[in-house]
Amino acid sequence: MFSKTCEYAIRGMIYIAQHTRNGGRVGFKQIATGIDAPEHFIAKILQELSRKGLVASMKGPAGGFYLEKASLNLSLADIVTAVDGDQLFLGCGLGLKQCSETNPCPIHFKFKKVRKEVQAMLEHAKLGAFIDKLDRNETFLKRSDFFMNN
Q1: Which residues, if any, are the signal sequence (predicted)?
Q2: d(CA 130, CA 5)
Q3: Class assignment of domain 4-140?
Q4: Where along the chain do its domains lie?
């Protein structure tokens, strides 16, 4: 459903939210390891998210990426839109450019309903809401060794 870039962006932003809520900063290598992503790829993604104002960064020995308090209210929809645009919320399920209400593809009306449900779910999913669940190990961002070996 999401591009690989968007998947890493979402996971990276959740990781940053969890690890910087008390004023710390995390480097891209730590983030990449923490979410099981390629370092060079996550560095480029975070640079773009920083340029778009979704994540903050500071250079230097005590530098790294972090979120401002207000950024904990960012929704997953905000991240998806920043990375992949709004095609997930507006595009045709079959990828047809000419699909519309007056010129629908075979799945147009059913897919429209699914798009709206996905959009609502992502808009209500706020970064800050994931922190406690991660701390309680109710959710995860990286597969554990158990899953990798089985």
Answers
A1: none
A2: 20
A3: mainly alpha
A4: 4-140
